[in-house]
Task: structure prediction
Amino acid sequence: MSKESRFKIESKGMFTSFLFYLIVGIVFLALLPLSNFPPHIGIMGIFSLVTAYGLLMKRNWAIWFITIMLLVSVTFSIYMSYIFLWTNPLLSTIMVAYLVLSLIFTAYTLNKRNMLES
Result:
């Protein structure tokens, strides 16, 4: 039995989007205690995990969570890049990469939204 049939992967792009939101959610929740428990990091982590679940289960409501995550990730990435630009260029680079990946996966998922069930 192959991995694709076991997980019912119809589109590798949608599965990659699922993995992106899953990894982002886990990373945000793992960073929560390291950053002194700011609530916005925890909320972003939970929203990312809910978005990943919605994509895995092919739920139509995942589109709303993806849109919310895009708005939050753009705001968060630009703010963090601006604040830490000169003091921590590595963090700024990571934030720009997160912003670009968020834009790519959001655009792909919104383009393929007909694959999600209602």
The radius of gyration is 15 Å. The helical segments are 3-7, 12-31, 39-56, 62-83, 89-111. The longest helix spans residues 89-111.
